[in-house]
């Protein structure tokens, strides 16, 4: 009797996979027209530009506010294209609601837990109990290359010795910064009270994942590590949303903002069998 009941359940689930979820998929995500596709495409390009590593070459520091702006742009585009909203199991919606499950995925290996994050500079771990100035001193116009990684992975590979051309580019960068009154005013306001010089951090984890961040030398490294980690993970989230949308759009020819039929069926089976 038990076997018959289980067999009947399997049949029902297969019917759900083949009919009910297809109807739900059509209900939630009809293929957008060409105009809506362009909305998604343009928004993806703009969001990627905000967190692009090209910002390093341009000397633009990435802040958490900028990351949130990129996420808000993507969220707005999804609301325009799918005004009825996405189902609760949709990966895109789960990303926006911070409910994404990256366990067992390559993307999950890139995410760093705030409490387990480590910053390294010049083959030394920047201890959270100290200040940034304890390591870099109080010199003005300081720029350092900082590596971020998960605790327990050991010291990251050291950066190659800076070349004369790179040194020239570095001096050019500082010259441009001096010529920007807005930045000069910001530095004066930030350092006037405490007398701490600003430090420009070039944060890296591989060649593709890198960005600039500025902080006073007096910053506690506990606070700085959390700040860097949040920007790092936020950039990853934007990249996942952009890559997922672009990749699925190319594969399905619809918009990319949907889950595959097999994943829907698997989630349905999990939900029903857990009842």
Automatic annotation (TrEMBL):
One Pfam family named in its UniProt record: CFAP298
Similarity remark: Belongs to the CFAP298 family.
InterPro entries according to UniProt: CFAP298
Encoding gene, per UniProt annotation: CUNH21orf59
GO BP of this protein: regulation of cilium movement
Name used for this protein in its record: UPF0769 protein C21orf59 homolog
Lineage, opening ranks: Eukaryota, Metazoa, Chordata, Craniata, Vertebrata
Biased composition (Basic and acidic residues): 264-275
Region (Disordered): 245-275
